[in-house]
Every structure is written in structure tokens, then in C-alpha cells.
Fold RUN domain-containing protein 3B.
Amino acid sequence: MAALSLGLSGVRKRAAARCSAVERKNLITVCRFSVKTLIDRSCFETVDDSSPEFTNFVSILEQILSHRLKGQLSWFGYESARSFWDYIRLACSKVPHSCIHSIESMENVRSSRAKGRAWIRVALMEKRLSEYISAGLRDIKTTRRFYEDGAIMLGEEAGLLADTLIGLNAIDFSFCLKGEGLDGSFPAVIDYTPYLKFIQTSDSISSDEEEMRTLGSSGSEASTPESNMAAALLCDQSSWFSKCKRVEQKYRVVLEQKGYLEELVRLREAQLAECVSQNKVLMQRFSDTELSHKLEKEQFEFIILELQDQLTVLKNHDLRSRQELTAHLTNQWPSPGTIDTNAVALDTLLYRKHTGQWEEKSFQSLEQLSVDMSLSQTSLDPAQAHSHTHSLEGKASLTHWHREGKEDTPSLRGLCGSLTSVGSFKSLTSLKSSECLASPTTEITSPGLTPS
């Protein structure tokens, strides 16, 4: 029993899937026929709301956009009917320069179905109906939210629908948006009569002719030759008439296909021309960008070379300054023997000043000692000897100043001690023999300084 129920459910599912597929295929096929009929009608007269071909096309398009459209749930869980305008309003809102807002603000159009019909007419006048449908199909999330599984808008037929509607861009539509066609109170009904014409095949025509001959020959044995001739002529006329009908039907089909292909070729040529113009603009931008990049690269290379030259000059200047400073610091100090003799004389002088023994004999012995020191410095140059003589004169003036009863400043003791200490001498010796100081390239003479 369970297996039987499962089998029945499977059969029902397959039957429902087949019915849905047949319904989708029929709607798409009828839509293609309707588009071709509109294109043929526009070649001879203007298409407006009163044209039966246009009314049939709008009904077919409404049926396609409303195929398996989900209802809207209310607060109490009831599902109410929904129009395809609710889907178009959300899915096509991102289309640039869309007519959605203008249709929403119409005063004479209030119901959702009437707004959807007004949108179809405005899109046809703008020649953008295929663009709106394609934009809605790209919004997959919104499309799945509004349609159930098996709907045309969720299948492969939707892409074919968008391509079919491109042919309507060749027609100049003109509608009145205040007419009776926008009334949403009556549903859209498709008229299948123009697409259900019976075409008799050649085999069927020949069989009918044979049947007519048989009936004519067996109808009366007393038939005259004139009646047989009339029957033959009638059969020939009917055969020629049927052949002309077949040729005319084929010609119409080929003419429709030719018009559709020509419109498709014009559309593709316009798209190709637009792509070529965009490609030229992009190539020009690319060349301008490449040229500016090349100029900036050359400027940066020139700046780098200039900075390298400046860095080399600064390095040479710094090296020369270091050498000059090393030579200056090395040559401005006297020999170590002179530093020891001057240190002993200054220590003796400070000691006698501290004990208060300032006598004439002490100053004379100090002057004699200074003279002996100056005579012993034979290695000094004339400039250093001249400065040493000035130091002796300074000492004589210092002696005269002390004789008049002037007192020394206590801060001189510490200064003299720093100049005559053994640590200062060691630091000077290490400074002179340091490996970090470069040997002077040029000998710089400076006046000799004595620690007086």
C-alpha cells in the first residue's frame, strides 16, 4: 500500500513537472509569435492600444511575468494575490534613469496591475523593455523571493524572453496612459486564434484530389465528357491555389525571420560601435597614464642623482672638517716637558700665596725661573716665544698688582689646578696619540699657549 502511494505521488510529480514545462514552453513560443506579428504590423500601420496584436502581446507578457508568482502573506497568515508590479518595482529600481518613480507618482493609476500595465507601455515607448527584464533577472535574490520553483523567470526561458523583446526596439510606440487599457479590474486573456492556423500538407492535398476524382467518376455513369473536363479543371485550380498558399506562407515566415535578424544585427552593430568607442577612450587613458608615469620616473631618477651628488659633497666636507679639527687640536698644545715645568712653577706660586710668604725675593726667583724656562724652549717657533714673553710681562704686572695689596680671586685656584693636573696632561697625551684622529694633511700653525 505504501509502495502504491509512493508510486502515485511520483507519477503526480512527473505529471506536474511536465505540465509546468509545457506551459512555460507554450508561453515563450506564443510570445515570440506575438513579437513577430507586432513587427510585421508596424511595417504597414501604427501600433497603438487599439491594435489587437498589441493587446494580445501585453496579455502574454503579463501571463509570463505572473507565472507562479508568490502571494503576499498578511498578519494573520493569509496569502493574498500579488501583481508583477511589486516585483518590477524592487528588481528594476537600480536601473539608471528608470521610470519606476514616475509611474509610482501617477494620480490616475492606483492599482498594482494598472501600474504594471503602465510600466509596460512606458518601457516600450522608451525602447528599454528588454533592459528592464534583464536587470530584474540579474537580481537573483529578489527574483527567488517573489517566484516559486518552476516559474519562467527562474528558468532558462527567461534569458530567451529578454532576447526576444529586443526586436521591439525597432518599433516606435505611442500610447495614452489615461486610456481604458490601464484598467486593472479585468484580467489579461490571451487570444491563441492567430497562431493556430491549419496548413495542409502536399500529401494530404494529393489524397483529397484522388478522393474527389473517385467520387466524381463513381457519382454517375451517364456523365458527359464536358463534366469530366470541368472536374479536371476544378482539381487543377484547387491544386494551384493550395501551392500558392504554401509559397505565400513560406514567404511570410522568411520575411519575419529576416526582419528579426536585421533588427538583431543592427542592435549588435550599435553595441559593437559603443564598445569600440569605449576601447578608444580606455586606450587613450592608458597612453596618457603611461606617459605621465614615464615622466615621473625620469624626474625621480634626476632627483636621486642630485641627492647622491649632494651626499658625496657633504661627506667630503665632513671628512675635511674632521681632518682640520684634528690638526688644530693636536698642534695647539705644548710639549709634555714644558707642561711639567709650568705645573711646578704654578704649584710653588700657589703654595707661597697660601702661606702668605710674598716677598721680593720670591718674585725675583719666580721671574728668574720663568726666564730659564723660556730659554729652555728652543723647539718653539717665534710666535710661541713672543706669546711667552707676553706671559712674563703679565706675571710682572701681576707682581706689581700684589704689591699694591690686591687680593686674589678664589676661583682662579681651581682653574689653575685643572690646567696643571696630571690627569689633564694624560688626557692631552692620549688625544694626541689617539688612533681615531686622522693625521693632518697640512700643518696648521697656531700661537703657543702657556698655562700662565
Observations:
- Residues 201 and 246 are 9 Å apart (CA to CA).
